Amino acid sequence: MGSVTDTANMGSVTDTTNTESGKKVTVIFVLGGPGSGKGTQCTNIVQNFGYTHLSAGDLLRAEIKSGSENGTMIQNMIKEGKIVPAEVTIKLLQKAIQESGNEKFLIDGFPRNEENRASFESIVRLLRIVPEIVLFFDCSEEEMEKRLLNRNQGREDDNIETIRKRFKVYMESSLPVIQYYGNLGKVRRIDAAKPIDVVFEEVKAIFEKVDA
Ligand SMILES: Nc1ncnc2c1ncn2[C@@H]1O[C@H](COP(=O)(O)OP(=O)(O)OP(=O)(O)O)[C@@H](O)[C@H]1O
Ligand SMILES: Nc1ccn([C@@H]2O[C@H](COP(=O)(O)O)[C@@H](O)[C@H]2O)c(=O)n1
Ligand SMILES: [Mg+2]
């Protein structure tokens, strides 16, 4: 997305569909419940299909670490399992997109609620970028809870109290976004309860079609 210019103001994103090299920008949203395996499978997709993986959660956690003025607000929201205002998250995504030099993006954990979706769409409408497809990692709460409690990555939100809050936000705010894209025929549902390599076989079949 080399020709997308943003003068630190989301309203001033230049209207362009293609990069300066004339290549098409591909955006794939990666959605699913907490612990469904989005990050794990994105790592596999990057290795096999040349996408840049942008995890909204990872970008927000990096923003906390950077000591930014929004850090405390973001940290408090993550601890409570709440969704950070889209304005903040989209700025981080835009910066990462610009810095990547790539044209193919997996946007993981975004849009997470209606406000995320509507804000993103109002910006990308200018760019005429629409998500190619939405990968939906579908997994039971029981399995996701087990995975999160065993993740051991030192995440402040991987405790049972916050996990329950994240599940509630997922059911109430994130699933409707998946349904929205489902109504547009964009959702590719994946049975994420299976072992990692089996899930990736299903993912691979989808990407082979996208890249065809
Ligand atoms: N198919 C799978 N079977 C068993 N364990 C898995 C599977 N996929 C991922 N895991 C493990 O579950 C944990 C959560 O996976 P991951 O971090 O990829 O989930 P996520 O969807 O990105 O979660 P979050 O939304 O919290 O970031 C990790 O410890 C990972 O190794
Ligand atoms: N669009 C988003 C994505 C994430 N968050 C916050 O980060 C937390 C962790 O997200 P993961 O995808 O890494 O699980 C999430 O619970 C939210 O608090 C957000 O606000 N907006
Ligand atoms: Mg993740």
TrEMBL record:
GO terms for molecular function: ATP binding; nucleobase-containing compound kinase activity; phosphotransferase activity, phosphate group as acceptor. A ribonucleoside 5'-phosphate binds at residues 61, 82-84, 109-112, 155, 166. It is found in: Cytoplasm; Nucleus. It holds the Pfam family ADK. SUPFAM superfamilies: P-loop containing nucleoside triphosphate hydrolases. It comes from the Eukaryota. Its EC number is 2.7.4.14. Transmembrane segments: none annotated. InterPro entries: Adenylat/UMP-CMP_kin, Adenylat_kinase_CS, P-loop_NTPase, UMP_CMP_kinase. Binds 1 Mg(2+) ion per monomer. ATP binds at residues 35-40, 151, 194. GO terms for cellular component: cytoplasm; nucleus. Catalyzes the phosphorylation of pyrimidine nucleoside monophosphates at the expense of ATP. Plays an important role in de novo pyrimidine nucleotide biosynthesis. Has preference for UMP and CMP as phosphate acceptors. This is UMP-CMP kinase.
